[in-house]
Predict the 3D structure of the following.
Amino acid sequence: MFNKRTKIKQLLQSEQTGHEVTVMGWVRTFRNNQFIALNDGSTNNNVQVVVELGLLDDATLKRITTGASLKVNGIVVASVGKGQSIEVKAKSLEILGDSDAEKYPLQPKKHSLEFLRHIAHLRFRTNTFGSVFRIRHSLAFAVHQFFNDKGFVYLHTPIITASDAEGAGEMFQVTTLPIDGSAPKYPDGSINYNEDFFGKPTNLTVSGQLEGELGAMAFSEIYTFGPTFRAENSNTTRHLAEFWMIEPEMAFYDIEDNMNLAEEFIKYLIQYAMDHNRDDIEFLSQRLAEEEKQLPQDKRSELGLIEKLEFVLNNAFERITYTDAINILLESNHYKKKKFTYDIKWGIDLQSEHERYLVEKHFKKPVIVTGYPAAIKAFYMRMNDDGKTVAAMDILAPGIGEIVGGSQREERLDKLEARMKDMHIPAEEMSWYLDTRRFGTVPHAGFGLGFERMVQFVTGMTNIRDVIAFARTPKNCEF
Ligand code: 4AD
Ligand code: MG
């Protein structure tokens, strides 16, 4: 059998000595023709492999270069060197794959995140991305743990859909018709989608919510966790064209139950990472502190990453209405000194500068904003008694802005139909959705957590492109 190896994380944790092990991994550094720092991705900590003089011929020694892959068999011994308690004294060493030192882009030195984005196929091998992607994995696992423990059913909603769940029209079209102008057309020149693969226009999903609601009307509580796609032309540090979203949907929940669940969920995810990825969070915390040293004092975070996470865990999220938020903004010195770029008045969609002011300057903690004007929110949100606002809730997080968007849903058929008509949403095509309101409708609510924004929050990474393996953004689809 080839793969009888000990993972480096496990080896370093056990601290036992005297036994024989096989380790495999990639060379990070090789010093004095004697000391190899070997890493297998199970942890950022390398195991030191000691090659005694005379064990290997010169030709083999030359092939031990940064990035080369090795299989090492040896004895675990106590280390006299600094920084590790054990090391592996090699008995035999096999080079599994060479790595040309002249050409290997990852040299053992600090590379910028920008540079690493261009070599995203290799960046997993750095400490920063090792930590980020182990944490991303843990958080994904924790999502399932959280909902499974509560008895929610994991529903796989479709990736290809024929509806625009958010009504925002930012969709990628899916078609097998030719795009060179030769697609079948009606006499008036419009495309005849009867001839298309699905017999109608289709797109990549922007949200699994509408299908999620169908599930909640039978299982009471469901969640989805899958990729979603938005063709919004936003080149920001918080937007991707392909991102992962977690969308729980619960029957017999009102807006307050919804807020409570979302807050509990976010705290659970943070706690899970703190308990299971302590080393990686500590590493990233130090990395962030180093990075922030380059910034002017007023741009630095008041809290380190770990302190920030602990603070969020130990404090209730602030809960305010949209109307409160507008008033706070209007009364701020920031506004009076004309420091906001976008105008503020009741009815506007909060811009990210407004959201950041509220969470970073005013409250200094996550804030849940409810009761947005109906006009700026999706058709499915429940109308409040004032007839102007809807039972929407957005959660805003420091350094991130909107991390969750959700609402209580409009369960009253007549009100929903009227709203859809106002917004020119074709009711005939949405008949399946309206059926849930026709047959045993119940108060229900749900929300969507942007998974990458959550990973950003826990890792402290400032650019969303650095928390997804291969980012899809406008004019960029590498790998
Ligand atoms: O606020 P959004 O658009 O809400 C929905 O899609 C609802 N259907 C959710 C629901 O109620 N079931 O998106 C939800 C979250 C946002 O708060 C944000 O965290 C994330 O998804 N998100 C994005 N993340 C990365 N890139 C983008 N382009 C994103 N757009 C939204
Ligand atoms: Mg939103």
User: Anything to note?
Assistant: Residues 394, 402, 405 surround magnesium ion (ligand 2) (CB under 6 Å). The longest strand covers residues 20-31.
